[in-house]
Amino acid sequence: MSYLDKAALKVVGTRPIRPDGVDKVIGRASFGADHTMPGMLWGKVKRSPHAHARIKSINIDKALKVPGVHAIVTSADFPNIANEEAFVGEGPMNFRDLSRNCMARDKALYDGHAVAAVAATTQAAAEEAVELIEVDYEVLPHVIDVEAAMASDAPVLHDDMFTQGVDPKPSKPSNVAKKITFAKGDIAKGFAEAEVVIERKYTTQPVHQAYIEPHACVVAIAPDGQATIWSSSQGQFMVRAYCAKLLAIDIANIRAVPAEIGGGFGGKTLVYLEPVALALSKKSGRPVKLVMSREDVFRGTGPAAGGVIEVKLGAKKSGRIVAAELVLKYQAGAFAGSPVGPGCMCAFAMYDLDNVHITGYDVVSNRPKVAAYRAPGAPNSSFGVESCIDELARELNIDPLAIREMNGAREGTKTPYGPTLVNVGYLQTVEAARNHPNYSIPLGPNQGRGVASGFWFNIGGESSAAVHINEDGTASVVEGNPDIGGSRASMAMMAAEVLGIPYDRVRPVVGDTASIGFTFLTGGSRVTFATGMAVTQAAEKVVEQLKSRAATIWDISPEAVEWKDGKAFPAGANAGSFEPLSLADIAIKSGRTGGPISAEVSINAQGAGPGFATHICDVEVDRETGHVKILRYTAVQDVGRAIHPSYVEGQMQGGVTQGIGWALNEEYIYDKDGRLENPGFLDYRVPVASDLPMIDTVMVEVPNPRHPFGARGVGEVPIVPPMAAVANAIADAVGARMRDLPMSPPKLSAVLDEQDPPRLAAE
Amino acid sequence: MPHVVMTGIAVRRLTGGVTEFDVEADTVRRLISELDRRYPGLGQQIDESMAVAIDGEIFQDAYLQPLKPDSEIVLIPKIGGG
What we know:
The complex is a heterodimer of chains A (763) and B (82).
Chain A: H1 21-26, E1 41-47, E2 53-59, H2 61-64, E3 69-73, E4 85-87, E5 92-94, H3 95-102, E6 107-108, E7 114-120, H4 123-132, E8 134-139, H5 146-150, E9 176-184, H6 187-193, E10 196-204, E11 216-221, E12 227-231, H7 236-247, E13 254-258, H8 274-284, E14 288-291, H9 294-300, E15 307-315, E16 321-333, H10 340-347, E17 356-364, H11 378-396, H12 400-407, H13 426-435, E18 447-456, E19 461-469, E20 475-479, H14 487-499, E21 506-510, H15 527-554, E22 561-564, E23 567-570, E24 581-582, H16 583-588, H17 590-593, E25 597-605, E26 611-621, E27 628-638, H18 645-664, E28 696-700, H19 722-734, H20 745-755, H21 757-762
Parallel strand pairs in A: 1-14, 12-13, 16-17, 20-21, 27-28
Antiparallel strand pairs in A: 1-7, 2-6, 2-8, 3-7, 4-5, 9-17, 10-15, 11-12, 11-14, 15-16, 18-26, 19-20, 19-25, 22-23, 23-24, 26-27
Chain B: E1 3-6, E2 20-22, H1 28-38, H2 42-49, E3 50-54, E4 57-59, E5 72-77
Parallel strand pairs in B: 1-5
Antiparallel strand pairs in B: 1-2, 3-4, 3-5
Helix pairs in contact in B: 1-2
């Protein structure tokens, strides 16, 4: 069924309080580190102090003698996984690499790489034992920067890495794991027709997802081999699958229980601790708890990729872009697998262009393996493209929204990566931005305004959900996705809408892997779309059962019953004359009419519908310090149909906030030996509340016809435009074009010094 | 019959450089089978790492999805997210 008639909806589109809200506000919610078990041991991971080193030997004799130590594991305690790639998490995952990222084998590839782990009765004993583990390293030359890693004389991380995607296959290994290319039209012809050509180079830094809750888990494996994992992750089924693969355990012997999650943003779509805790539990015979410190999180877990973005645009003087060329060099960290593919595909997806050529390089270096982060790959390439389009617009003296309207993607636009766009709302976001009062507020001295747009595909995928009718007429909803952004509320709302009962009569829970069918992880902005579709279908099946039960009570045909506002009615005079039966009336008699009323639906949801956004940023630049103050920020986004508008707005505001952090301050700082110097929030500067104004949101609603309520994913695309929007605003404010992130006070100050030498003289 | 386009250059090596072709198929499963018959290895490549955009909508792991005689099929890398 379709519920696209917004006026007819009673629950969807309202803003009720989330079911997990009270627990989280009063501190009662149970996160990964909160779980404990009788007889539980404390685990501690020993990490490499070197950016690149061969592990010659590991001596655990002294560590084993520490009182209370029950087990120590190294790579020798893990199966040596073959080079095998599969799409299980949030991208193609090489299980050999995943195993070696959890526990280094042969070589440590970055500062913070796990090399051993201890389980002991106390945290103090575990920490003491970790210090006594003796690792004999042969320190090797290292490389941190992406272009340095691509150089022919760079230290090579993997002897068996030969660049894929080039013909003929290279004869020598290198740090370039893959080269990919997308092409549309005739790029040379396009540039030949151009009246203006602009070519620029931009750089972004790897940034951490900066979730507040560090990774944590408790793992217990019984003597019969049955394991239970309690952990904070973006997918209990992902945890189960990865652990089964890495430890060679049958999936049926692992039950993964999702804890509440204190943020993930993509960073918890893979495992770090769970396989290690599993190995320790197996070896010790006791439950084992592992909790990362903040330093562990920064040194040992995946940031988003940084990279180099080279953009060349050719245009007519009218502003029409006739050629667009892009080269992306993305950091993958220590193992292959940067999001350079989606970076390539998203870069020009907002535009209707005839001639495009895009090349991407996936490059390894001695940094932690990158992990997904909202719209992985898109923010980097969009920073370059959206900055360059702004530079083009300024050169041609064209309004930045006008140049986007002129070149904007619309229904039927053929994207540079191939598909023809359908059900797109990009130009609606540009129009809404133009009409927003914030686009015409006058600006003062050193103040500027920038705009930028962004795109993300959104995905569907496999989801399961169950709806159970309780005997008092309330309903329980079980979903298979950890609730990160308020999905429990959205699931309950969709179920309530279909059942025709109030929101507070529906209780949603997140099931463990034994309680609900397989569900792909929470990521890719898929949950409200895909799992919401499963919930809706399960609720519809329940409604059919309710109609059938009413028919049994009335002794008429089920076809003669209709369901409206949570009650069964005879469908017309011919059906007979009966008083309506409420859901509670039917539920109380369910035992007599056929047993419990429930339905579980498992689907592979398709047709997620693309997400587009256009942002406006106003800044004020302090010319003395280089500090950038965000005066106003307006995020306009096609959200399809907002199920819970507050949580959609929250996703938009959260994405913008993280994008502003990426733009202005966040970066990893390494010393000359490749050691991370700022593994904590004191030195790694994320935005705090006092840094930002309230972020204005505008939800453009172009319903997605594939979803019963018209929903699209909303959590990814809001992080795509901010970096360019801020850079464009800074350029507007002070005429300084910042092409290297972060645009921190020292960097901007240096640019202003060059631009404005008298300021130095005055000082 | 459905028209297939491949934009990623790497996968074109499996087709000997051919980037566009027509395929007689009425479901994604049959499309993949036929592509693998013509270009051995391409079917496995699609199964493991590619999504299929049908008339602009992206489908992942959707063997049952029907194709229309005039469908535009574009093979693209699978999409994840954060």
